[in-house]
Amino acid sequence: MRSGMTAGLAVTALVLTACGSGPDTEQTLRVGAAASLQEPFEEIAEDYEAENRHVTVELQFAGSSDLAAQISNGAEVDVFASADEETMERVSADVAGEPTVFATNTLTIVTEPGNPRDISGLADLEDVTLDVVTCAPQVPCGRSAEDLAEARGVMLTPVSEESRVTDVLAKVTSGEADAGLVYVTDAAGAGKDVATVPIRDADAQPNRYPIAVLTSAPSDEAQAFVDAVTGSRGQRILDDHGFGLP
Amino acid sequence: MRPPAWLWLPASGAVLLVVVPLLGLVAEVEPDRLPELLTTQASIDALLLSLRTASAATVVSLLLGTPLALLLARGRWPGQSLLRALVLVPLVLPPVVGGLALLFTFGRRGLIGQHLEAAGLSISFSTTAVVLAQSFVALPFLVLSLEGAVRGLGRRHEEVAATLGAGPWRRLTHVTLPLVAPGLVSGCVLAFARALGEFGATLTFAGSAQGRTRTLPLEIYLQRESDPDAAVALALVLVVLATVIVGTVYARTVRPEPAA
Description:
heterodimer, A: alpha/beta, five-stranded mixed β-sheet, 9 helices, 10 strands, elongated, B: mainly alpha, 76% helix
């Protein structure tokens, strides 16, 4: 597929040169971003494209670890935004310059709408008659959940440890689980399908999202996209979607 | 009869398409670390759980699928083709759709699940849910192979048995089933192998808890996030298991045509 894309680009470039469309040739900027960033990044990319008319942003959303693995295996990505610093660390060999933390996220409890089991905080999740679902400790949201529970001296015994935060949310919205630990942004995205029970002082241990230009394409365009995310407008969009700002 | 020689060209393409990615996987394995990676408690739990649930799913498929396959192959009744189509649907469904279907049926608020829940029976997050998910995807494999075997048999033997006074049950147990035994075995094995590889429906429906619902494919998926080497090692186990299982059955049931 990549060769097809390259061929397509080559043809586009040829046509553009033939037309003599000036010095700005069409460019594609490939951005790999954590799945939780989908909505804000789509907005930021739209803004960016409006200001950089010669660039098409190609967004790819997946689990941070998925993306990191693809990058390590040679995927051509220009900019990478990860859900935690540990995952960014894994591709450090492919990063040009220093990653910048541009957003934070914290965990919250979600329950069925109306909170029928009357959960008021993290300690209530110790109740063994509750079906509690969390992320597995191997993934960012699970690491956060584990750290948080440990810091509060709460013993969680989840009935299921999911690989993705969206799977935790799905178990709660479908009514299979009584409660789950997800990011505040996921809870906000779920709207009326869940009730949100904030965890006191959870933002003392936030997840930090870093973004970086990768060595495969240290272009001005890639840096400009990072600037768009870390700039005031990008930060406002992230804020609108419930992210904390560094 | 010998097929045209040029068929080897596209055929080798087919072999490469399937075999080379498997070699790619094997090449990624670090042999020195294999023992260490495969003997973690999580790996052992996942492997044992997978073997247990896939066996259970095979038994379920056998008990429910055999009668269905016989009726589909031999019976003549209204709605037969529609039913056959429906039973085969899980073969082509995206796994997550199967998971959703199970969720809306056996989940806590599901069609049947809500009544079970009221009776104090909860399937969600249990090993039963895994077996259900695996049976859902594995059953069509058994039905398909067995139905094909029974149809391929023709009716001659049964008719002879009937003229000799054998009733329907005796014809079934003494004539039909022994004759289709290879088809039954290969159906079971395919069902077992499919159950072993089940992923999407389990993840959607049963969840992922070590020793209870986290089967080998789910463990691979999870390990890939934090320890890709462990994921590759476990993936190798799954590939070897599948190859051995499918290989032994086909070696026994698909004999080459005798040379003329």
